[in-house]
């Protein structure tokens, strides 16, 4: 049972918090909207676990050659491929049923998320740059589920900021994987072939651009006339320092602490990063209330 839970990766559910961003910044906190948002969150949790199971099934041979991933339940033999396939089917059915309780649009976005990840696991993860954009698209689908899926019109600035921050995290993950390969001496063709198409210098440029765009787009969002009119004040700008510090802290962990391959785990284990996110949420709620 412990191996199955490990296979489902529940600590990654924190990423599905992007579903809740829409109601938060749209100032729609009524019980009906919050209930629908939580159901959408649960649907993405089930579908995310299904995708992780699918990826592990398809990558089982490559994971056996990876210095860290070989310890996962499937490549290590703790969970059989047959059991994993059964779990995948059950999780997809659960996710689809839960999303349908929210709306037909939520079901559509969750289904697109599954289809996109099937394409990613099959071929697109080997296409340089596009592989990170596909990962980012998964987060954008979460935001759209928490907005359009709940009948909320998303802000263009919010969508832009979401795109930039997820691209930043995606390219940072690729950089962390390169650093891990350099440290272990493993072959990129045996672990993740697309890493051979990336270079440290190129990734550093991508990271710098997306980090700067994240700060800029979020800062402009907080002071945009649409935002100040919606919330009745321009105080959201006071949350910007937490975003800047969080990005800088993440870059520190990437280069000085060999982190970055698992964003959710890094967030939950680094006290500085966790406190920054909690403080950002707290100040945001205080400003918007």
- The CATH topology of the largest domain corresponds to Tetracycline Repressor, domain 2
Q: What's the rounded overall pLDDT mean?
A: 91
Instruction: Write the H/E string, N to C.
Output: HHHHHHHHHHHHHHH
Return residue spans where pLDDT drops below 50 for at least 5 consecutive residues: none
Rg, rounded, reads 19 Å
Task: Provide an overview of this structure.
The chain is an all-alpha fold and 289 residues long. The chain folds into two domains: 1-154, Tetracycline Repressor, domain 2, CATH 1.10.357.140; 155-289. The protein is 74% helix and 0% strand. It contains 15 helices and no strands. The termini are far apart. The model has no long low-confidence stretch (mean pLDDT 91).
Quick tags:
Tetracycline Repressor, domain 2; 0% strand; 2 domains; 289 residues; mainly alpha; 15 helices
Q: In terms of topology, how is this protein built?
A:
Elements: H1 2-8, H2 21-26, H3 31-58, H4 60-64, H5 73-76, H6 81-102, H7 104-122, H8 130-145, H9 156-184, H10 188-191, H11 200-223, H12 225-231, H13 240-256, H14 263-269, H15 271-288
């Amino acid at each position: 049972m412990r191996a199955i839970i490990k296979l489902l990766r529940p600590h990654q559910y924190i990423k599905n918090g992007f579903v809740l961003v829409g109601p938060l910044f749209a100032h729609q906190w009524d019980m009906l909207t919050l209930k629908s948002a939580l159901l959408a969150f649960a649907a993405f949790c089930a579908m995310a676990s299904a995708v992780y199971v699918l990826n592990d099934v398809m990558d089982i041979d490559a994971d056996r050659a990876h210095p860290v991933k070989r310890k996962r339940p499937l490549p290590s033999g703790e969970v059989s491929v047959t059991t994993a396939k059964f779990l995948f089917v059950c999780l997809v059915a659960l996710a689809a049923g839960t999303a349908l309780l929210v709306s037909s649009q939520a079901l559509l976005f969750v289904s697109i998320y599954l289809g996109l990840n099937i394409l990613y696991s099959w071929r697109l993860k080997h296409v340089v740059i596009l592989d990170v954009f596909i990962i980012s698209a998964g987060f954008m689908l979460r935001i759209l589920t928490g907005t359009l899926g709940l009948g909320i019109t998303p802000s263009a600035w919010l969508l832009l900021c979401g795109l930039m921050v997820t691209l930043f995290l995606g390219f940072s993950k690729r950089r962390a994987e390169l650093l891990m390969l350099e440290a272990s001496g493993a072959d990129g063709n045996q672990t993740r072939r697309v890493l051979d198409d990336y270079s440290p210098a190129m990734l550093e440029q991508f990271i710098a651009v997306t980090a700067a765009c994240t700060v800029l787009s979020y800062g402009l969002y907080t002071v945009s006339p649409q935002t100040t009119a919606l919330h009745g004040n321009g105080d959201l700008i006071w949350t910007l320092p937490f975003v800047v510090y969080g990005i800088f802290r993440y870059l520190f962990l990437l280069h000085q602490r060999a982190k970055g391959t698992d964003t959710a785990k890094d967030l939950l284990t680094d006290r500085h990063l966790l406190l920054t996110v909690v403080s950002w949420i707290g100040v945001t709620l205080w400003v918007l209330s």
